Hints:
Largest sheet: 7 strands, mixed
CATH topology of the largest domain: Aspartate Aminotransferase, domain 2
Strand order of the largest sheet: 4-10-9-8-7-5-6
Shape: globular
Number of domains: 2
Structural class: alpha/beta
Radius of gyration: 23 Å
Number of helices: 12
CATH class of the largest domain: Alpha Beta
CATH architecture of the largest domain: 3-Layer(aba) Sandwich
CATH superfamily of the largest domain: Type I PLP-dependent aspartate aminotransferase-like (Major domain)
Amino acid sequence: MSMRDCIYGINTMVPLLQGGSKRYVNLDNAASTPPLKSVLKAITELAPFYSSVHRGTGFKSRLCTDAYDMAHEIVGEFVGADMESNTVIFVKNATEAINKLSHRLDAPPDSIVVTTRMEHHSNDLPWRGHFRTVHVRVEADGRLDEEHFDRVMSEYAGRIALVAVTGASNVTGFIQPIHRLAEKAHAVGAKILVDAAQLAPHRKIDMKPDDAPDHIDYLALAGHKMYAPYGTGALVGPREGFLHSAPDYCGGGTVHVVTPEEVYWAGMPDRDEAGSPNVMGAVAMAVAAKSLMEVGMDVIAEHERQLTEYALRRFADMEDVRVYGETNPDMAGEKVGVIPFNLRGVDHAFLAAVAGFECGVGVRNGCFCAHPYVVELLGLSDDETTRWRENFLGGDKSGMPGMVRMSFGCYSTEEDVDRLIEAIDVVRNRSYVGEYRQLPRTGEYLPVGYEDDFGGYWKYPEEVIY
């Protein structure tokens, strides 16, 4: 069975500005992936039994408790975690997972967290509020400057509590040597967190045994990037790392006993999963993980390598397109299927708008929640950066720097790449039909006189039956 047969909504038709409709091409998978049919099937089958979890005595509650507890084990298996000593904590997304660790990390407040200039904001900003943060540089093409990493490790040895790195960049797709970095972190007494939001849907992850020198201590995951909607992510890490203090969120489910004077906290993961959990989301994420394991992450990686190579070869023939990061098709295996680019002389927001409104191709444009990294890749001067920032803070985003990003899923095809190339040609040849106006407040381009009519596609029910 083709992976396309496993994805829901793969042949959805969408309206075009010029009239008619076309099969939607989603090349924004780095943001969110469509759901697997297996995930929707499992949720539909569980829905009649949906109930409270933990401590409920009814059959439905017992069933949902079993499903929820099993979800922890499946996600742990997906990343190769030893569940005897490690725990899986369900949260909303990878951003919440990293924020949780920033609150729960057992380290003195004067400790240092080492991160990099290629990080998503979610693996940068949380650390700034809790620890002194040191950023490792990147090279001109966007790869991690590992020599600088080594110098930082040496300079701050003994003071580093955590090394926080992305597993794969959401901007350039570069895959980090996470196990090599883990060994270097452990050598100076530090632990390592891998933000695996982008890595997990594309490559096999193995946290390795706890006593391995290149073991991954903490891992953050996002279900919505793993073909599982319903709003769940996970933080995986050592149980003992969370038992030293009270949880960051307190309340129902987090305790064993409460008296007027004392609190006896629960064990893991209950201590850090306050309140009624998102059972459906946890099950969705676990089913997605099982599905990906059954397909085989090596199979997915090879398909993606071939597709990335194809896209880079197509771009190599286009002199007015600049690709950022890796441009050599023969090196496609060193990155996940994320390709940022710009068309010379064209605002990234305009190209993305035409692709969406007139070609039925969904991409993303801008800085992808990684402003320092994108600014560096674009090679902006200090004056340009200052001017952009001042305009932005003044409410004018029309000059915001950025790129267009195409990103693949396990179901993407060469035809999808060709559809984006056709959209680029429409812009290049000025054969688009709409008149577009940029909104300074948002920086986006919208066709003049056009309004989306969503009524024929989805709307809230007119009548609700109680």
